[in-house]
Specification:
It is built from eleven helices and 15 strands. By secondary structure, the chain is α/β, with parallel strands linked by helices. It folds into two domains: about 5-125 and about 300-335, Medium-chain alcohol dehydrogenases, catalytic domain (Quinone Oxidoreductase, Chain A, domain 1, Alpha-Beta Complex), CATH 3.90.180; about 130-275, Rossmann fold (3-Layer(aba) Sandwich), CATH 3.40.50. The radius of gyration is 20 Å and the shape is globular. The protein binds NADP nicotinamide-adenine-dinucleotide phosphate. NADP nicotinamide-adenine-dinucleotide phosphate (NAP) binds next to helix 3, helix 4 and helix 11.
Length: about 325
């Protein structure tokens, strides 16, 4: 193919929030697939808080992105050339294609999707890693029982907005923590949460106490830091604290450790972290159930779509750390 592939590469390891000089915009000819490979035109990039962790040169559940490498990203796209019998030109797919316009893949880890059933953005959201994280974090790690009280931080984000709706499907009382009146109103008025607490308001933890006077059975934490501490104060006896993420800490060199951990002892509670990839052999099961709830109108895939080019990635990623997204943040490339 006689065209140019625009890419975003990691130029420097950020300290704190990534800044434009941490990225390099590069271009090279679009590669030609070899036997067994496909060429994918990337149409949608998934923007994830975990991307920040991938930029640090320290051990994690996945190796860091190397300097000068194309930035790692989950993405959706269309097969434009195929030398792999498992894929045809025109197939729509998701996979780890990176922040670039065209990607070569041998097909491993690539899923075919049907954008005539739901939009590509939903395959990166409710039916993608976001949905899997909410589903397995809440039902398996959180061991949710019908009718319990659930507290969710980062509740208006991609994972949080799903967790709350899944808990409502199970007849639970659901309380969300989010930044700002608009996000809190979306949780209660649109997504069916029973209460929402704005953590940016002084004395907000009082609101938490009022919303959950008898404590919470599951605390699904996406935020960490002081928000985790405030939630720990609200545990009911036998509570499960699900450590899904700690976005408030990703840009800080030295994470804030929880002060209120003795609440686990007093309340005979447990706190457990997880990585969604460990549930990969059950994604199909979760996907089928989530798709059913979407079809039935019981679940809404909340998505925040920014349209632009791969060159807009460096300016779009920080939205996650500034609370500028409501639902799953996706960068749509061009008009697809
Ligand atoms: N364990 C796993 O396998 C796994 C998989 C996927 C995601 N995760 C984790 O799940 C969490 C949510 O991910 P997501 O994709 O759904 O992102 P997201 O919640 O859609 O986006 C980030 C949101 O976090 C909030 N936030 C940012 N900085 C904050 C701060 N300093 N204090 C409090 N809130 C802050 C903002 O909302 P406000 O406006 O409300 O502040 C922002 O909109 C992240 O921690 C992520 O790392 C874990």
């Amino acid at each position: 193919m006689d065209a140019t592939n625009h890419q975003i590469r990691l130029a420097a390891r950020p300290t704190g929030e990534p800044v434009p000089s941490d990225w390099a915009h590069t271009e090279e000819p679009v590669p030609t697939p070899e036997d067994g490979q496909i060429l994918v035109r990337v149409t949608h990039l998934s923007l994830d808080p975990a991307m920040r962790a991938w930029l640090d040169d320290r051990p994690s559940y996945i190796p860091p992105v190397g300097l000068n490498e194309v930035m790692r990203a989950l993405a959706g796209g269309e097969v434009v050339e195929s030398k792999n019998p498992g894929f045809a030109v025109g197939d729509h797919v998701t996979g780890v294609f990176g922040v670039q316009e065209y990607a070569i893949s041998d097909g491993r880890g690539v899923q075919k999707v049907d954008p005539s059933a739901v939009p590509m953005t939903t395959y990166l959201s409710a039916l993608g890693m976001t949905g899997m994280t909410a589903y397995f974090g809440l039902f398996d790690v959180g061991a949710l029982k019908d009718g319990e009280t659930v507290l969710i931080s980062g509740a208006a984000g991609a994972v949080g907005s799903m967790v709350g709706q899944l808990a409502k499907i199970k007849g639970c009382r659901v309380i969300g923590i989010a930044g700002g009146a608009e996000k809190c109103a979306t949780l209660t008025d649109e997504l069916g949460f029973d209460a929402a607490v704005d953590y940016k308001v002084d004395g907000w933890s009082r609101g938490l106490r009022e919303a959950a006077p008898d404590g919470v059975d599951v605390f699904f934490d996406n935020v960490g830091g002081e928000v985790l501490d405030a939630g720990l104060r609200r545990l009911a006896r036998g509570a499960r604290v699900v450590i899904c993420g700690a976005i408030s800490q990703y840009n800080s060199g030295q994470p804030y450790g929880p002060k209120n951990y003795l609440s686990l002892l007093v309340n005979r509670a447990r706190m457990e972290g997880f990585v969604v990839f460990d549930f990969a052999n059950r994604y199909a099961e979760a996907g089928a159930e989530i798709a059913g709830w979407l079809r039935a109108g019981k679940l809404h895939s909340k998505e925040h779509v920014v349209t632009g080019s791969v060159g807009d990635f460096p300016a779009t990623l920080p939205k996650l750390f500034r609370g500028e997204n409501l639902g799953k943040l996706v960068l749509q490339i061009g008009k697809d």
